[in-house]
């Protein structure tokens, strides 16, 4: 074995050893801005997915229904609005925090009234479409639930961005009877 082969073997072994010593922190927190949103072209599909996610009683379920930063940035770019990156991040975080605050209120109300969301059955779905002066589409969505004699509603505003529907604002839970 000549010297070249010997140094090649030593070099390859050192590469394998160095690669094997890569250290990853245990319990490392993921970047909060790096989540993927769920894209829904149809509003009933968004409502069905949201209906299935609500009973999980976890604040993290709201994130996939809010447009992420990359999607919002692309939306503002296509609308010819000059937004800086920090403004887009702020807008996205405000939407997310507002919905999480509303969801927290819903959780408090259901716990106070001893309502189990998993046992509620959705009976009806109501859409009230609209658009603003700029041509942006939105929809007031009301989902009706029933458990025995008691009736409840869950309502929110859905917004359309670049052809996809997202949960936008005013997440509310009301007791009808």
What does this entry look like structurally?
There is one protein chain. The chain is an alpha+beta fold and 177 residues long. Helix content is 38%, strand content 26%. The protein has four helices and four strands, in the order H-H-H-H-E-E-E-E. Strands 1-2-3-4 form a four-stranded antiparallel β-sheet. A hairpin with a 2-residue loop joins strand 2 and strand 3 (150-161). Helix 3 (69-78) crosses helix 4. The longest helix is centred in the middle third of the chain and has 28 residues, at 85-112. The protein starts with a helix and ends with a strand.
Layout of strands and helices, then pairs:
Elements: H1 3-20, H2 43-53, H3 69-78, H4 85-112, E1 121-131, E2 137-147, E3 150-161, E4 164-175
Antiparallel strand pairs: 1-2, 2-3, 3-4
What class do helices, strands and sheet pairing give?
alpha+beta
Query: Which strand-content bin applies to the residues?
Result: 25-35%
How many DSSP-defined strands?
Answer: 4
Helix content: 25-40%
- Low-confidence parts lasting 5 or more residues at pLDDT below 50? none
Outline the biggest β-sheet: 4 strands, antiparallel
Radius of gyration (CA) equals: 24 Å
């Amino acid at each position: 074995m000549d010297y070249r082969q010997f140094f090649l073997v030593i070099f390859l072994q050192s590469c394998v050893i160095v690669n094997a010593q890569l250290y990853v922190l245990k319990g490392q927190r993921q970047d909060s801005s790096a989540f993927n949103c769920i894209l829904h072209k149809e509003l009933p599909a968004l409502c069905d997915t949201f209906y299935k996610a609500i009973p999980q009683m976890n604040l993290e379920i709201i994130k996939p229904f809010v447009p992420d930063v990359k999607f919002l940035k692309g939306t503002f770019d296509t609308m010819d609005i000059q937004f800086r990156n920090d403004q887009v991040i702020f807008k996205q975080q405000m939407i997310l925090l507002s919905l999480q605050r509303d969801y927290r209120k819903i959780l408090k109300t259901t716990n106070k009234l001893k309502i189990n969301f998993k046992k509620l059955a959705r009976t009806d779905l109501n859409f009230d479409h609209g658009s603003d002066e700029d041509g942006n589409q939105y929809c007031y969505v009301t989902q009706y639930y029933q458990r025995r004699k008691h009736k409840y509603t869950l309502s929110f505003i859905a917004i359309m961005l670049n052809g996809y529907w997202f949960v936008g604002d005013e997440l509310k839970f009301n007791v009808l009877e």
